[in-house]
Automatic annotation (TrEMBL):
One of its GO terms (molecular function) is oxidoreductase activity. PANTHER family: TETRATHIONATE REDUCTASE SUBUNIT A, TRIMETHYLAMINE-N-OXIDE REDUCTASE. PROSITE patterns: 4FE4S_MOW_BIS_MGD, TAT. Residues 48-104 form the 4Fe-4S Mo/W bis-MGD-type domain. It comes from the Bacteria. InterPro entries: Asp_de-COase-like_dom_sf, MoPterin_dinucl-bd_dom, Mopterin_OxRdtase, Mopterin_OxRdtase_4Fe-4S_dom, Prok_Mopterin_Oxidored, TAT_signal. This is Thiosulfate reductase / polysulfide reductase chain A. Keywords: 4Fe-4S, Iron, Iron-sulfur, Metal-binding, Molybdenum, Oxidoreductase, Signal. Belongs to the prokaryotic molybdopterin-containing oxidoreductase family. Pfam families: Molybdop_Fe4S4, Molybdopterin, Molydop_binding.
């Protein structure tokens, strides 16, 4: 029965009357009732439990308080003690509850019964599934060597399958999508320039900044909680904002200038800005002298790159370029060009990131208030274990890259991703591990363990991935949802969600170095298991008991915590988070102590390392391929209420934004006879077609590009709310340009045309 508002209020009134009546019974009556086992108050506050967690609805890891009543999670909240959430969560974080109780979750280990690529499985016991998985992995290791198995891992539980078990197993082929498909060029550029990576939390000193220039970097749609809080506060404090984006993004709506740049030409703009700062003498001379090397060569190098040179390339008027450079200089050092995060754009991305960093340096803002601060991480010891047979930088959001060198360990199997041949340096890049599965070059990869990576939505060139999956001898998938790639696994293991498990500590590199705890709020769904447990069980079966000497996860965590004088109990007493003082500014470093551990001990504007490796030692602009007639460049980005391809099925989030749209310039749409809401198919330069997607005809995008929110267009999954909704950008990204320095996969080199659905 539905209550009308009036009826509801009337009954509420009656209840309130009863309430007063009851309370007038007085304490003696209540005391008597208690002796009879009655509870008062009736809502039983003793059964509300709060546990600590860090959010896994995206990779940002906001600290979370989880409220459980009678064994059910009823709500999650930001942990006020946590530097990343400060008591708040974003919409996706709130929807963690719906993630936990998604009825489509995987519930049983599955063993393949039919052909790969079909959803033909039988349910199995953990005992059987683990035995068989370990047997298959051991056979590959014995027959072809441990390097014949690749391990792909992501989500915030990826430590066990991305950093620990694979290295104990002895494979250097450990890939995370947050490397070559996300931030590797940025980390490599930072390593070359500053001798240190940027890390998982972009170190922008929002509190003190007065002038912000966003290049791409669509904050507001890219919805990292703390960044949005900080960004909003900076604007409220009067900071000026310039947004460089071919699309009028949410951030652009807040900007005092929107520069609708021609896609792929940002390096030209950055060079022109440097040109103005240097030729007009507006840069920070003292800073450059004290902290950098190579400025003279830069001054020489940028001479031809005037605003007049950049204007026809970028399609931004020369006067505007000049004015923005002067405005930046007028605010220095409280001016910042944030490094962005998803920086694999056009394949020359390390050079673009170098240009962006050097521009910041000319403004004297690195390690200064209002610019880029210097983050630090707490130093916890690992749980003692024998040395790993391989050493490799698997990378990931928090990991720094490795400078210009080929990071193979002598005497151990080299990486198969092409570092040193196809590209120069950096952590293992995931997408280049697919090729050896097909071609056997430089040596064959025959097995794949995929933990929390969305094979068909995150890795470009899906036909190639399918080809690889057909050839592999063994595929093990560990996930929480029936994503489409699981149909290619031989064994599927259902993990418990982050709200149901302990996990490795989150050790954050941040302005305030800190650690955060993840502990279970409720028992896992029957027949799902935590990642640490799965890794350990596999490890024991693979003869790796020496690496798993702990008897319980609590013992593991306590031992690590002990190295900094903490324990699980003390971490809980502290509120699930423990912080240390940071050293964010240059003034926090003493004489003779440099925050820039480059070979010169200074910021390297001119890079000897790049020169030696045969690359341009100073950033250069390289034109990108133009779309053929009738085609648009395919751009993509985020929606504030979705994460990649993993939240489209979330019961709450699916209700708010159930499918994506293709943004098309309104004049171009009209010329094609299309209007808002029409359904079209997108066909790329290789003839690959997306499913039908609605047109969003809008003046908010340039005429030469279209735009999709990433992560939609699930096909062949068992996701009841996501299946068949919208179009997949990744399906249309059949090619990419490899960044020759870092191995990042520039994915904005695909073109699509619109075909009206008939
Ligand atoms: N809600 C939500 N937030 C997220 C995520 C999520 O899944 N969901 N994922 C997180 C992760 S891991 C990452 S890496 C970040 C990614 O977020 P960002 O680092 O902000 O990613 P970008 O690729 O810089 O941003 C996409 C923007 O670049 C613009 N763009 C496209 N081509 C060009 C160009 O040639 N030049 C310029 N100047 N702009 C261009 C697009 O129009 C779009 O507005 O988001 C993070 N935040
Ligand atoms: N085309 C295209 N490709 C992209 C991007 C893009 O914008 N467009 N963005 C790139 C970027 S910036 C990044 S960082 C990567 C992200 O790449 P991914 O991390 O691969 O992206 P998701 O779609 O979030 O995939 C997460 C997978 O983990 C599963 N999962 C969720 N929770 C758990 C859990 O607790 N345990 C386990 N075992 N599994 C879990 C999900 O069901 C899903 O299969 O993608 C990159 N690739
Ligand atoms: S930004 Fe949102 S989804 Fe990401 S960790 Fe924080 S609350 Fe969770
Ligand atoms: Mo990313």
């Amino acid at each position: 029965m539905k209550l009308t508002r009036r009826e509801f209020l009337r009954r509420g009134g009656a209840l309130a009357g009863m309430w007063t009546g009851l309370s007038q019974l007085g304490e003696p009556v209540l005391a008597f009732l208690r002796t009879r086992g009655a509870r008062w108050p009736w809502y039983r506050p003793d059964e509300v439990r709060i546990t600590y967690n860090y959010c896994d609805m995206c990779m940002w890891r906001c600290g979370m308080l989880v409220y459980t009543v009678n064994g059910r999670v009823v709500k999650v909240e930001g942990n006020p003690k946590d530097p990343k959430s400060r008591g708040r969560l974003c919409g996706r974080g709130q929807a963690a509850v719906a993630h936990l109780y998604d009825p489509d979750r995987l519930r049983k280990p599955l063993i393949r019964t039919g052909e790969r690529g079909t959803w033909s499985f039988r349910e199995a016991s953990w005992e059987e599934a683990l035995d068989r998985a370990a047997e298959a992995l051991a056979r590959l290791r014995d027959q072809y060597g441990p390097e014949s198995v690749a391990w792909f891992a992501h989500t915030t539980g990826d430590f066990w399958f991305g950093d620990y078990l694979p290295l104990a197993f002895g494979s250097p082929n450990v890939g995370k999508p947050a490397t070559g498909l996300c931030l590797t060029p940025r980390e490599v550029a930072a390593q070359i320039t500053f001798g240190r990576g940027i890390g998982g939390h972009e170190p922008v000193d929002w509190e003190n900044t007065r002038y912000i220039v966003l290049i791409g970097n669509h904050i507001g749609e890219n919805a990292h909680n703390t960044v949005m809080q900080d960004f909003a506060r900076a604007l409220a404090q009067g900071a000026k904002l310039v947004v460089v984006d071919p699309r009028y993004s949410t951030a652009a709506m807040k900007a005092h200038r929107w520069l609708p740049i021609k896609p792929g030409t940002d390096t030209a703009l950055l060079l022109a800005w440097m040109n103005v700062l240097i030729t007009e003498g507006l840069y920070d001379r003292e800073y450059i002298e004290k902290y950098t090397v190579g400025f003279e060569r830069l001054a020489e190098h940028i001479r031809p790159f005037t605003p007049e040179w950049a204007a026809p390339i970028t399609e931004i008027p020369a006067e505007v370029i000049r004015e923005v450079a002067r405005e930046m200089a007028a605010h220095r050092p409280q001016v910042v060009i944030p490094p962005g995060r998803h920086v694999v754009w056009y394949g020359n991305d390390t050079q673009r990131m170098r240009a962006l960093f050097i521009l910041n340096v000319l403004l004297g803002n690195v390690g200064r208030r209002g610019g880029l601060y210097l983050p630090r991480a707490p130093a916890l010891d690992p749980y003692p274990h024998p040395p790993f047979p391989v050493e490799v930088a698997a990378g990931g959001c928090g990991a720094a890259a490795v400078g210009i060198r080929i990071p193979d360990t002598p005497g151990h199997p080299p990486r198969a991703d092409g570092v040193g041949s196809k590209f120069a340096t950096g952590p293992v890049v995931i997408q280049e591990l697919i090729e050896p599965m097909i071609t056997g070059q430089p040596y064959p990869i025959r097995g794949l363990v995929v933990y929390g990576v969305n094979l068909f939505h995150s890795i470009p060139n899906v036909p190639r991935t399918i080809e690889a999956l057909k050839r592999l001898e063994f595929v093990l998938a560990i996930d929480v949802l029936p994503q489409e790639h699981l149909a290619w696994a031989d064994i599927v293991l259902p993990e418990a969600t982050f709200l149901e498990r302990y996990d490795e500590l989150w050790v954050a590199s941040h302005r305030i170095p800190y650690i955060a705890l993840r502990e279970p709020a409720v028992e896992p769904l029957p027949d799902t298991r935590p990642g640490w447990w799965i890794a350990r069980e596999l490890g024991l079966r693979l003869g790796l008991a020496d690496y798993f000497q702990w008897s319980s996860i609590e013992e593991y965590l306590n031992t690590r915590l002990m190295s900094v004088g903490l324990s699980l109990d003390r971490l809980r007493e502290a509120g699930g988070v423990f912080t240390w003082p940071g050293k964010p500014y240059l003034e926090d470093y003493g004489e003779g102590e440099t925050p820039f551990p480059t070979p010169s001990g200074k910021i390297e504007i001119y890079s000897e390392a790049l020169a030696r490796a045969g690359f341009d030692p100073l950033p250069v602009y390289e034109p990108v391929e133009e779309p053929p007639p009738g085609y648009f460049r395919l751009l993509y980005g985020r929606h504030p209420l979705h994460t990649f391809g993993k939240t489209q099925n979330n019961p709450w989030l699916a209700e708010v934004y159930p499918e994506n749209e293709v943004w098309v310039n309104d004049e171009m749409a009209a010329a094609l006879g299309l209007k808002n809401g029409d359904r079209v198919l997108l066909e790329n330069q290789d003839g690959v077609r997306s499913g039908p997607v609605r047109v969003r005809a809008t003046p908010r995008i340039r005429k030469d590009a279209v735009y999709l929110v990433h992560g939609f267009g699930h096909r062949g999954s068992r996701l009841s709310r996501a299946e068949g909704r919208g179009a997949s950008d990744n399906l249309l990204i059949t090619r990419y340009r490899l960044d020759p320095i870092s191995g990042g996969a520039g994915m904005r080199v695909n073109f699509v045309r619109l075909i009206r659905e008939v």
